[in-house]
Amino acid sequence: MNPDKKIIIDALQERVNASPYVIIIDYTGLTVPQFSELRKRLDTAGAKCSVAKNSYLRKALDEAKLPDISEALVGQTAFVSGESEIFAAAKAISNFEKEFKKPQMKVGILDGAILDEAKLKAIASIHSRESVLSQLLGTINEPASRIARVIKKKFNPEDEASAE
User: Is 104 left (phi over 0), alpha (psi -120 to 50) or beta?
Assistant: First the structure.
């Protein structure tokens, strides 16, 4: 193999190994400004979008011992990877797709499992970790807040009268 190609494949493999997920997208029809905007949104979500030759990416995924997704590596494909959760990246791609009708998520790999387009869209619809935690915290705090209001009302009835 050409040493230059090996360097590129090794760099791709390093990126794939450093990420808990990889999302393959079809970026056919995106203009350069749109692609730049997609990259900016993914960067905000803690992810990076890169274009690589399909054969190089196929070889990098194979060397990383990840599942075979060769059938998705056709046409104008890019891959998204990141160091944080897949939810934010999938949501950024999904929202961008709703806005511009492209790119299309083709397939993904998460912890060694293949995710089809439907699963990626389902992941994109899940709220962020922070949002779920804040909802959970609100649910946990609700009974304590009610008890506090009842106790305050019971022991400070003049506060109710002065408020009216």
Answer: beta
Q: Is 104 helix (H, G, I), strand (E, B) or coil?
A: strand
Cβ neighbours of residue 113 closer than 8 Å, sequence gap 6 or more: 67
∠ CA(107), CA(109), CA(113), 5° rounding? 115
Strand partners, 24: 79, 107
80 beta partners: 23, 49
* Cβ–Cβ < 8 Å for 108, 52: no
* DSSP tag of 71: G
Both tokens of residue 19? 């990420």
Per-residue model confidence as pLDDT tens digits over 9-32: 999 999 999 999 999 999 999 999
* Residue 103, phi then psi, degrees to nearest 5: -75, 175
State which H helix or E strand residue 118 sits in: helix 117-125
Q: Which amino acid is at 90?
A: A
pLDDT digit string, tens, across residues 84-127:
889 889 999 999 999 988 899 999 999 889 999 999 998 888 87
The predicted model scores a pTM of 0.76
